Amino acid sequence: RAKSGGRGRACTFEAAMDIELHAKRQLEHDLRHAVAKGELFLVYQRIVDTSSQEPCGYEALLRWRHASRGVLAPADFIAAAEESGCIIPIGIWVLEEACSEAASWRTPLTIAVNISPVQFLMPNLVEQFSHILAKTGLQPDRLELEITETALFHDRAAVLSTLGQLRAMGIRVVLDDFGTGYSSLANLRDFPFDKLKIDRRFLAGIGADPTIRALFENVIEMASTLNLPVIAEGVETQEQLAILHASHPAQMQGFLFGKPEAAPSSRAPLKAIA
Ligand code: C2E
Ligand code: MG
Ligand code: MG
Ligand code: MG
């Protein structure tokens, strides 16, 4: 009895694994065709200047209109794209789409693009970037590249060389999701970033907890010692805004100022920016 029960459980477990593996394969298969089928699109979320609360740029965020599953967010497919290598063509598509969108704006606001550590470590990254900038006509100083710390844990010399070449082209590099994961002071000191984006999970706890608030203020102070402007992401409430007024990061982003939405150039009636 005990034996057959055990076998039964094992079978159920294996069946579940099978289903999971099958779903993963299916996702990877669908992903491989997503670019060609035009199923990917970008939404744009504004970034505001803290003093004026006017938009100074937009962050491009990837979405996938899946044929049967509806619109998927990055959390549903980026990991699979990274594992399967699909992230490379997808990342190139994202960059070109975002740059050509921003190049069409009447006002020269910045465009921030997220880049996967997998793509960041590709040897021909710099050539790809200069090719896409030339093709879309976007001024390099309007492009901000958002990378996370996982991109730094590889061949240090290669990372430094890539960062240096991108910055020499005029592209700015932002360290995204700071304050979670392995965030380390040494990374800020050793790698030449242009801006620091503090993770929204950090800000999420700020109202309730005076310790988090003090930590948050310390990060901003530390960044200012390093001459690094800070952007606070995930600003959702007036309460958070009031706190940020005191600590004063250079820029802010969050649902309070605007959700990710259709490309500014396609919105009607055309607002000031497009
Ligand atoms: P991220 O770059 O840190 O982007 C911020 C995420 O927080 C976005 O989620 C955005 O929609 C969400 N967000 C913004 N303001 C608020 C707020 O006030 N409250 C809350 N609760 N959330 C807010 P999204 O679009 O689902 O993207 C998640 C992550 O996926 C991004 O984090 C980024 O790491 C990655 N990602 C997005 N687009 C791309 C892309 O084109 N390429 C790559 N490689 N990764 C991407
Ligand atoms: Mg980002
Ligand atoms: Mg972030
Ligand atoms: Mg994030």
UniProtKB/TrEMBL annotation:
It comes from the Bacteria. The chain holds residues 501 to 774 of 774 of the full protein. This is Diguanylate cyclase/phosphodiesterase. Residues 24-274 form the EAL domain.
